[in-house]
Structures are given as C-alpha cells and as structure tokens.
C-alpha cells in the first residue's frame, strides 16, 4: 500500500469519527511531513531505522510538537496494521514520550483585569463613535462593538476561539435564553445566556442600528453573528480574534489569549461551588474526568479554603 493512499484512508476514517476539522488538518500536516521526508513510497518498506532517523531530524522542534507527531504517527500506523494496509506492526517502533505532569494552577483573569479589559473596549467605542460620519471610523466603531460582544461571549460561556468566531445568528435563542456552540468532534452544546451576556447582546443589537446602511446590510445579509469584512458568506477569521488579543495584551500589560477566558470561566465556576458535572457540560468536555484532570489544582485549592473554615480551637 502506498503511504499516500494509506494516509487518505486514515484521514477518511477520522472524518467518519467526526473529529474537528482543526484536528484532522493537524494530523494530515504531520503525516504529510513524514511522507515528504522519507524516500520510501510503500508502507511495508518502512522499518525501525526510518522512524529513528526521522525523529532525529525533528529533534530540534519543541517537545510538545515532537510528542504530537509521535502520537499521530503511532495512531496512523496502528490503523494501517489493523486495516491490513501493512503486514508489520510498525506502530510498535514508535514509543510515545511520557513525561511527568506538573499540576499547576491555570492562569486566570482577576476581576480587576476583566474590568480593565472592558474599560479599554468601551473607551475605544466612545472614541470611534464621535467620528462615525467617516466610513473608515464607522467600521472601527463597529469593530469596537463587535469586540465587546466577542469578549463577553468568551467570558460568560467559556467557549473556544473557533467556536465564538463561527457563531451563527440562529445559534442565539433569546426566547430559550441559550447559545448553541458547535464544539469539538462536531457536537453541539447549549449554554445558558448569563444576565451580563444578555446585556451585552442587547447593547450590541441596539448600537449596530446606528451604523451606516452599507455595514448594516453586510451584517443583516450574513448568517454569521460576526461575518467576514470581505465576504458575508463567511465568518471573521480567527486571526482577527488573535489580533484583538494582542491589543488587549498591550492594554493590560500581560499576555492575553482567547483560551485565558475559558480558564477564567471554569475557575470562577469552581469558586462559585458549581458541581463538576455541570462545569464539564458547560465547557463542552466529553466527561467530567477531563475537567477534573485539567482543573485539579483549582478544585483542590477551593476545597482547602472551604475545609479550613471548619477548623476551630475553641
């Protein structure tokens, strides 16, 4: 079996399992990198030396990248053997790198930092609102409104970056008070709309009515809540969200990234004494054990604070 053909079968199997497009793209990239590196065309022509030489070749990469590539290749060649695309258990030549996990607290935003972020965004809104008669500033004013809603959704739902940018208008149901997120693995997750998020949605909908007709038409004709500036049939690129995070980093003096809002959401849920099953469901984890493994430190720290209150010497 040609390596290239085997990769095609493997990717098709991942698509059938409904893995996310991001995961599949990463798998394909890693496998193509190995395929392009090796001089061999057939899966059965590969041997232990090929894998060792390849891992030496990529040894200067970050450890996280090396670990991922080993996992991807192990899974691929195990698939090949299981599906009889090769005669040898090639996956047994690829040992995963196991390292001791250090349980450290997730970085989260303080209440003061959250206020600082929204103050910065509202300041931008006021700044551009004064110049809306200019087409250029009209768009910047819209961006300031959009950015406030983006951050509100990230903060009050704990969703991932690609989930927020790809939101469709129909995903927001104000009657049922829910936002439906299209999450990892092609699954849907309904998250209740927090009161503060409801205010942000109302403010956004009210404010965009003051935009120029051209911008209003772009927003109205798109199915997406945050459409691309150049194509209303597509949502805004994730790169735009990353650029916003850079701006917020400069404004706050600390590194801000989209996943930081997810950790903040989960950590504040833990501090609010929500049960782990509810938190797991809210942040789209497939089971509570994943949530426990990620937020062990936060849960332990909170439990210690609660238990120490029971101590009394009189």
From TrEMBL:
It comes from the Bacteria. SUPFAM superfamilies: DNA breaking-rejoining enzymes. Pfam families: Phage_int_SAM_1, Phage_integrase. One of its GO terms (biological process) is DNA integration. One of its GO terms (molecular function) is DNA binding. Residues 104-308 form the Tyr recombinase domain. Residues 1-81 form the Core-binding (CB) domain. InterPro entries: CB (IPR044068), DNA_brk_join_enz (IPR011010), Integrase-like_cat_sf (IPR013762), Integrase_catalytic (IPR002104), Integrase_recombinase_N (IPR010998), Integrase_SAM-like_N (IPR004107), Tyrosine_recombinase_XerCD (IPR050090). Keywords: DNA integration, DNA recombination, DNA-binding. The keyword Amino-acid biosynthesis does not apply. Site-specific tyrosine recombinase, which acts by catalyzing the cutting and rejoining of the recombining DNA molecules. Belongs to the 'phage' integrase family. This is Integrase family protein.
